[in-house]
Amino acid sequence: MRILLISGISGSGKSVALNVIEDAGFYCVDNLPPSLLVDLVNTLEWEGVKSAAMAIDSRSAHLLKIVPEAIERLRQLGHEVKVLFLTASSETLIARFSETRRSHPLSHLLQQQQLSSAPLSLVECIQKERELLEPLQFLGHVIDTSFLSANSLRQWIKDEIGVEQAPLILMFESFAFKVGVPLDVDFVFDVRILPNPHYDHALRPLTGKDQPVINFLDQQEMAQDLYRDIQSLIEKWLPEFKRDNRSYLTVGIGCTGGQHRSVYMVEKLAKYFQQNERVLIRHRQTNCG
């Protein structure tokens, strides 16, 4: 089995790393007591799990000394074990805890485990945690996250475990402004300025996927100008969203009733981008797909 052990200083990004690893298909466990490590791996192997990741940190302070022995035992059993240790400068950690306003995990835990007689300050907690985790720091690859954004750390973790970035899914979604703008959209374009097929009695019962409506809007120079502008903007900025490790980019196209103009524009844009991108189409106010 492929096993990743994630450890490190609180506030250094262990949760970010574990989320990335979980998204990559690993079975993940946070705050695992080291005494359960070998038994858990045996159980997961029996259940057919091929890749697993466990976060072990200072919350198991009194058990950390058995981690090296547990790792050696797993390797003797034929498992591939890799350790990632995340750290950061004390100044960075203090700033991060100040931003989140969270207390350090050791502030009361050491008292509960009778390793300290009184609560510790944040600086004291950080120093004490470094001392507790020092034996683990040299078991694997150390990543200093002091000057890394969360997004950069995600990419570093993907590189560490050999995960390729999943292709971004570009979703085009039509909707009706009279119902409301969907909450899940990244871009919103208003096509209510275009001539409305609703006022043509022959076109009113149709949708933007029906050929008579398509023909009507294809003949509108304004519709073609707007289409090209939207297409150009998305095409220009799409690479930046990909570099930002986005999984989805949702483009909302709205008209009054969400039946004609918005559907037409969504279908036209989707057809163009389907040539090179993974595209999804959603129509909120119609049953046309």
UniProtKB/TrEMBL annotation:
Binding positions for ATP per the UniProt entry: 8-15
Single GO MF annotation: GTP binding
Taxonomic superkingdom: Bacteria
Taxonomic path: Bacteria, Pseudomonadati, Pseudomonadota, Betaproteobacteria, Burkholderiales
NCBIfam families listed in its UniProt record: PRK05416.1
Protein source organism: Undibacterium nitidum
RapZ-like N-terminal domain sequence ranges: 1-162
Name of this chain's protein: RNase adapter RapZ
Pfam families given in the database record: PapZ_C, RapZ-like_N
Domain called RapZ C-terminal: residue spans: 170-286
Keyword Electron transport among record annotations: no
Residues reported to bind GTP: 57-60
Keyword annotations: ATP-binding, GTP-binding, Nucleotide-binding
